[in-house]
Specification:
The complex is a heterodimer of chains A (261) and B (244).
Chain A (H helix, E strand, L loop, with lengths): L4 E7 L6 H14 L4 E5 L7 H4 L11 H5 L5 H4 L1 E2 L18 E5 L5 H8 L4 H14 L4 E5 L6 H9 L2 E6 L3 H16 L4 E9 L5 H12 L2 E7 L2 H4 L7 H4 L4 H15 L2
Parallel strand pairs in A: 1-5, 1-6, 2-4, 2-5, 6-7, 7-8
Antiparallel strand pairs in A: 3-4
Helix pairs in contact in A: 1-12
Chain B lengths: L1 H10 L8 H9 L1 E6 L4 E3 L7 E7 L2 E6 L5 E7 L4 E2 L1 H6 L6 E4 L3 E7 H10 L1 H33 L10 H6 L6 H26 L9 H12 L2 H19 L1
Antiparallel strand pairs in B: 1-8, 2-7, 3-6, 3-8, 4-5, 4-7
Helix pairs in contact in B: 1-2, 4-5, 5-7
The chains are: A alpha/beta (261), B alpha+beta (244).
The complex binds adenosine-5'-triphosphate and magnesium ion.
C-alpha cells in the first residue's frame, strides 16, 4: 500500500508559473524532511529541470521508457540532493531526498501511448511504482496548460490538485471549468493559488472573492515580481530569497499541501 | 562671579533643591574650564574625579560604534550636569565629552562633592530624591513606550491622539526622555501616514464568470468517450484507495 500523495499542478493558460511553483514547492517539501519526487513533463522546453540545474543532455531515460518497459524506475530518478551544483538556493537541498523524473508525455507521444494501450491504469501504476520504489511522501506533477487528455489523466490520478491562476477574468473563466472537471473526477483535495498578482491590488480581497466564487480554498496569493522574472541564474527562488514576499506566500502554499491528511 | 555660579547651580536639576548657603559653599569649590570647539572635557574609560556643570556653550556626549565612528548620544548645554554618575559609583567615564563650540564648564572635584555630602546629609537625601524622581520618570515612560510599541505592532495607533501634549511640551522641557518620546511619536505618526497611504492605494478587482460558457465548455470535455472511460477508471481507483 502506498501512502505517498500525487500532487498535480495545473493552470488554464501557459506561463502562469507552474514550473516555478512546482519546483519551489517540491524543494520546500524536501527541506521539511519529506521524500519528494517531481515529474517533469516537458524536457523539450525550459521548464522544471532548468530550475534544478539540469539540461536535457544530462537526463537519460524518461518515464516513457519505463512505461514501454525499456527502463526500470530506479534508472530514471535523478537525485537532486546529490547534484545541487553551484547555485546558492539549490545548495540548501544537499543531502535532501528529492528526485526528478523526466518524462515527455506530450503531443504525438500521448496519442502513441493511448494507441499502445498505455492508459490511465498504466500511467497510474507507473506513478504508484515510482512512489513505492523511492518511498516517496509526495510526487509532484508539473502538467501542461489547458485540458487535453494527458492533463485529464494527470488530474484523475491526483490526490491533491493545485490550480494556479492569474487574478483576471480570463483565468477565472478557464479555472472554473477545471474545477468542475476536478470535482467530476472526485479529486479529493482541490486548492487554488493566485500568481502574478500586481502588488497594487488588495490580496486579501482577491483571496476572499475567489474563494467565494469557487467554494475552494486559495492557499496563497503570490505577487508579480521582477525579482522572480529576473532570476537569471535559474535558481530556486524561495530557497535563494527566503524573505521575499513571493517566497513567504509560496511557503504558505507548501504548508497547506503538507497539512493535507 | 561666585554669585553667578551660585545662580547657575540653582538652575540644575541636581542642585536646585539646595539652600543658598549650600549652593554658596559649592560655588566656592568650583573651578572654571574654558573649552574651544573640539576640546575634550572627559574621555570614556578614564577614572573619574570630578563632575562638570555646563555654564556656557554646548558639548556633545559621544561614544564609538562598532566601526569606530563617532556616535553622538546626546548634546548638553547651559545648566546641565555631566559626569556625576561616575563620582557616585566610582566607575570609569562611560562616554567621551567634546565641546561643539566655545564653552565653559564648572568643575567640581570629587573631594568637594564628597565633603558636601558628608557635611549635609540633606544634600545626599535631595540627590537621592532627585535621582529617584528621574528614575521614576524614565521608568514610567519606558513602560509606556513598551506598551505603545506593542500597540504599533498590532496596528493600533489610537494612542497617538492622547500623546499630543507630551510632544508639545518637549519644546520647553529639557528632559531627554521627553525629547526621545517626541521623536518616537513623530516616527509613529509617519509610519501610520505611510501605512494609510498604502492602504488607500490598494485597488479592488472585480471578477466575473460567464456561467453558461462554463457549463458549455464542461459539457464539451465530458461528453467524449475518453472522458466517460476515464471517469469510470478514476472512480474505481478512488474506491480502491479508500478501501486500503
Ligand atoms: N510571480 C511572478 N512574477 C514575475 N514573473 C513570474 C512569476 N511567476 C512566474 N514568472 C515568470 O513567468 C514565466 C513563466 O513561468 P513558468 O515557466 O514557471 O510558468 P509555466 O506555467 O510553467 O509556463 P509554461 O506553461 O510555459 O510551462 C517565467 O519567465 C517566470 O520567471
Ligand atoms: Mg512550465
Amino acid at each position: 500500500m502506498n501512502k505517498g500523495k500525487i500532487v498535480s499542478i495545473h493552470s488554464f493558460r501557459g506561463g502562469t508559473g507552474k514550473s516555478n511553483t512546482t519546483a519551489n514547492l517540491a524543494a520546500q517539501a524536501a527541506l521539511a524532511g519529506k521524500r519528494v519526487g517531481v515529474v517533469d513533463t516537458d524536457i523539450q522546453s525550459p521548464g522544471i529541470h532548468v530550475l534544478f540545474g539540469l539540461d536535457e543532455t544530462k537526463m537519460g531515460k524518461t518515464i516513457n521508457d519505463f512505461l514501454h518497459g525499456k527502463a526500470t524506475i530506479r534508472e530514471i530518478g535523478f537525485p537532486i540532493g546529490e547534484n545541487t551544483g553551484g547555485a546558492e538556493g539549490r545548495a540548501k537541498l544537499a543531502g535532501k531526498n528529492l528526485w526528478l523524473f523526466p518524462s515527455s508525455i506530450r503531443g504525438r507521444e500521448i496519442s502513441q501511448i493511448i494507441k499502445e494501450g498505455v492508459d490511465f491504469n498504466r500511467l497510474n501504476e507507473g506513478l504508484q511504482t515510482t512512489i513505492s520504489e523511492f518511498d516517496l511522501d509526495y510526487l509532484f506533477i508539473d502538467t501542461h496548460p489547458g485540458l487535453n487528455e494527458e492533463t485529464l489523466l494527470s488530474i484523475a490520478t491526483s490526490d491533491i490538485l493545485l490550480i494556479i491562476l492569474r487574478p483576471d477574468n480570463q483565468d477565472l473563466q478557464g479555472t472554473s471549468v477545471t474545477i468542475d472537471i476536478a470535482r467530476s473526477l472526485d479529486v479529493p483535495n482541490l486548492m487554488l493559488m493566485v500568481n502574478k498578482a500586481l502588488p497594487k491590488y488588495d490580496f486579501a480581497q482577491i483571496k476572499t472573492d475567489i474563494e467565494e466564487k469557487f467554494h475552494a480554498s486559495v492557499a496563497g496569493v503570490l505577487p508579480l515580481t521582477f525579482d522572480l522574472a529576473d532570476n537569471a541564474s535559474n535558481d530556486l527562488f524561495s530557497l535563494r530569497y527566503p524573505d521575499h514576499e513571493w517566497s513567504k506566500a509560496l511557503r504558505g502554499v507548501a504548508e497547506a499541501i503538507l497539512a493535507v491528511k | 562671579m561666585s554669585q553667578d555660579i551660585q545662580n547657575y547651580l540653582k538652575k540644575t536639576s541636581l542642585f536646585k533643591s539646595l539652600s543658598d548657603d549650600m549652593l554658596n559653599a559649592l560655588a566656592q569649590n568650583t573651578t572654571t574650564r574654558k573649552l574651544a570647539p573640539g576640546d575634550v572635557l572627559m574621555r570614556k574609560g578614564e577614572i573619574a574625579d570630578s563632575l562638570f556643570i555646563i555654564n556656557e556653550g554646548w558639548v556633545k556626549i559621544v561614544t564609538e560604534d562598532k566601526k569606530g565612528d563617532e556616535l553622538i548620544i546626546n548634546k548638553c548645554g547651559p545648566g546641565e550636569i555631566i559626569g556625576e554618575m561616575a563620582l557616585l559609583d566610582s566607575g570609569p567615564r562611560s562616554a567621551t565629552v567634546i565641546a561643539i563650540e566655545n564653552s565653559e564648564a564648572l568643575e567640581l572635584k570629587q573631594e568637594a562633592f564628597q565633603d558636601l555630602l558628608d557635611k549635609n546629609p540633606n544634600v545626599s537625601l535631595s540627590i537621592i530624591r532627585s535621582y529617584s524622581n528621574r528614575l521614576r520618570f524614565s521608568t514610567k515612560y519606558i513602560e509606556r513606550a513598551i506598551d505603545w510599541s506593542q500597540k504599533i505592532a498590532e496596528g493600533d495607533y489610537s494612542f497617538i491622539d492622547q500623546t499630543q501634549q507630551i510632544s508639545k511640551n518637549a519644546e520647553t522641557d529639557d528632559d531627554k526622555a521627553t525629547q526621545l518620546l517626541s521623536a518616537f511619536f513623530t516616527m509613529v505618526r509617519r509610519v501610520k501616514e505611510r501605512e494609510d497611504g498604502l492602504k488607500q492605494q490598494l485597488e479592488q478587482l472585480t471578477f466575473e464568470i460567464d456561467q453558461s460558457r462554463r457549463k458549455q465548455e464542461f459539457e464539451e470535455i465530458t461528453s467524449t468517450e475518453f472522458y466517460a472511460k476515464l471517469k469510470e477508471q478514476a472512480k474505481n481507483l478512488r474506491d480502491k484507495r479508500a478501501q486500503q
